[in-house]
Specification:
Helix 2 packs antiparallel against helix 3. The protein is an alpha+beta fold. The protein is built from nine helices and nine strands. The N terminus is likely disordered.
Length: about 270
């Protein structure tokens, strides 16, 4: 909500709920870039990691490129600086972008460390392999926070459904799409990429045996695909969850930003 002074200028202040208002506090329009540490401020979290190739080029379509990225990701996950506190739950490597669902503990610095190591190694090795220079990723990875069991499951399904929605394969043939975690969750395939997955608790609760879990997962995934419309934008917002949870997170973030703005104003000379 924005309020204006008599001269038409925008006014800062607080709403009735105590949340700040003002031009840079309208989070829905996302006018300002916030750091990952501001958004992922809690010690633990589940995130949807997304990044796109530079200029939206299909750089990962080149022979060996996806394997090179995944090898770099594993190095990041196993790096001593990650302290074994970052887990990979789902992934899908497309020709010009990548989706991952990950969780972290011991603070977001561990997640940032894993991504910094992985993308640093990948960029260097990719450019060397393909005799090029410059950026591989268009920008730093997006890491929206996922809140609640239902949201975690929706993000998981969304990631693995990418090849189907892109027209690259069908549900019946998705088990043969190598760079997707669906092969493990739906069919129990364990190989070089899928062996690095950490199944989430909700998946383990689907059945007592691997076969039961896989059968239940395939049915849940099929039902997810029957949804008439899925907006990709909702999976790239700062927060992914129920409307109430998102609202609470937005209010907390607004208050955090406003408090820092006020502190900075008080510290500045008049």
């Amino acid at each position: 909500m924005r309020k204006r002074n008599g001269d038409g200028g925008e006014k800062w202040g607080r709403n009735g709920d105590g949340a700040p208002f003002g031009p840079e506090f309208s989070l829905c329009s996302d006018p300002m870039r916030l750091s990952r540490y501001q958004i992922l401020s809690e010690a633990t979290g589940n995130v949807h990691v997304f990044w796109r190739c530079h200029d939206r080029k299909h750089l990962l379509d080149q022979a060996g490129a996806k394997k090179l990225f995944f090898q770099s990701l594993v190095i990041g996950l196993q790096h001593r600086g990650s302290d074994d506190s970052v887990k990979l739950h789902a992934f899908c490597l497309m020709d010009n972008h990548v989706h991952q669902q990950m969780s972290y503990s011991k603070g977001v610095t561990k997640l940032s460390h894993v991504m910094r190591v992985a993308h640093g190694i990948f960029g260097q090795r990719f450019n060397k392999k393909f005799n090029r220079s410059g950026k591989v990723a268009n920008e730093r990875p997006k890491t929206p926070l996922v809140g609640g069991l239902e949201a975690e499951m929706r993000v998981h399904f969304y990631i693995e459904a990418n090849p189907i929605r892109a027209g690259m394969t069908t549900l019946q043939k998705l088990r043969f799409f190598f760079w997707s975690s669906y092969r493990f969750y739906g069919h129990g395939i364990v190989d070089e990429p899928t062996k690095h997955l950490t199944p989430p608790q909700w998946y383990l609760d689907l059945g007592k045996t691997p076969a039961e879990r896989q059968r239940a997962y395939r049915e849940l995934f099929r039902k997810y695909l029957e949804q008439t419309s899925v907006s990709w934008g909702q999976f790239l917002d700062r927060f992914i969850g129920s409307p109430l949870w998102i609202w609470e997170k937005q209010i907390a973030l607004k208050k955090q930003i406003f408090a820092r703005t006020e502190a900075s104003a008080r510290a500045s000379p008049a």
